[in-house]
Design goal:
With 336 residues, the chain is mainly β. It has no helices and 40 strands.
């Protein structure tokens, strides 16, 4: 029984030939040739009894696709149209390398890219968008380490390939976490610096995932600390692995200070009076305020601070602040 041709895809291509097409139908076992009009196709491969792949010869106009086997020639009319479409040409890839995890956005520049139907990195198809006749943006698929050829297929054919190198992503490294402490309730914006942060999938404070994080560059990301307590290690995970921990990767949760008593609780409006403030969690205090006015101070212990009252008037609340937050109003100082 002679082969039957039901379709060809794509059904048009460059007059120069070289377009890879798929012929579908039935009875393809034992096929000996495929003709486009009177010209024989090259690179004919019988994929199955219902599918053949072939590379078009040069030609012009609209011709019929005929499949030949030992049982005869197909008799169906299946047109293929030669069009004056240039063969695509790739002049550059930016970047021309990425990690085996894929996901890198690659800008392909060249000519004749309009109407692209396929972009491949090696044998793997890539998602892409045609920006213009001279530019395509593609997302590199995942692949094994090594170099592959990137190709673009249009109705004009398959363009000259360009090399793209895959490498195993490096394990991320954290060099610093700043600030290195924050409130028990979380919410502190933390800058993490180091390297290998491209493609970060997770940032953790101890075993708890950070709030929203943003990869600023391969060497920096910002993350929102989750709620926690004590000292924990910050880690970053990418397709290359999880960062190691050390003294520069720790983050300490700090409770907010508490102001209980002031001695004395009053002083001259000109300020300068030394006031002993008692309370809790003063070790990491960064500010002492009399109302809205900052005071100079020294930390005596976790429960005691001595501050020099700034100038002021009337009764004001005295508060202490640290990376853990600000104390609730608890001490009133009266200016005489």
């Amino acid at each position: 029984m002679a082969p039957v041709v039901s379709g060809v895809s794509p059904n048009q291509g460059s007059t120069a030939g070289g377009n890879s097409v798929t012929v579908t139908g039935s009875g393809f076992t034992g096929v000996t040739g495929v003709r486009f009009g009177t010209n024989l196709a090259v690179g004919v491969t019988v994929q199955s009894s219902t599918q053949i792949t072939a590379v078009t010869p040069s030609g012009s106009g609209t011709v019929n696709v005929v499949v030949t086997s030992s049982s005869g020639n197909s008799s169906q009319t299946v047109p293929y149209t030669y069009v004056a479409v240039p063969i695509p040409s790739i002049s550059g890839l930016a970047p021309n390398q990425g990690t085996t995890a894929g996901g890198t956005s690659v800008t392909i520049t060249g000519t004749g890219l309009t109407g692209a139907t396929s972009v491949k990195f090696g044998s793997a198809s890539a998602a892409f968008a045609v920006n213009s006749a001279t530019q395509i943006t593609a997302t590199a698929p995942a692949a094994a380490a090594g170099a592959v050829l990137v190709t673009v297929t249009t109705p004009g054919g398959v363009g000259n390939p360009a090399a793209y190198a895959y490498s195993v992503p490096a394990v991320p490294v954290i060099a610093d976490v700043a600030p290195g402490q924050g409130a028990l309730a979380g919410g502190t914006a933390v800058a993490v610096t180091g390297g290998g942060f491209t493609g970060t999938t997770s940032v953790k404070f101890g075993s708890v995932s950070a709030g929203p994080f943003t990869v600023v560059s391969d060497g920096q990301l910002t993350a929102t600390a989750p709620a926690g307590s004590g000292t924990v290690q910050v880690t970053v995970t990418t397709p290359g692995g999880t960062s190691a921990t050390g003294t520069r990767t720790s983050y300490t949760y700090v409770p907010a200070p508490t102001v209980m008593t002031l001695t004395p609780a009053q002083g001259p409006s000109t300020g300068g009076n030394l006031v002993t403030i008692k309370g809790a969690n003063f070790t990491n205090a960064t500010d002492v305020l009399f109302g809205a006015a900052p005071a100079s101070f020294s930390i005596v212990s976790d429960i005691q601070i001595v501050a020099a009252a700034p100038p002021g008037s009337g009764p004001v609340s005295v508060t202490a602040a640290s990376a853990g937050g600000s104390s609730s109003p608890g001490g009133v100082y009266t200016y005489l």
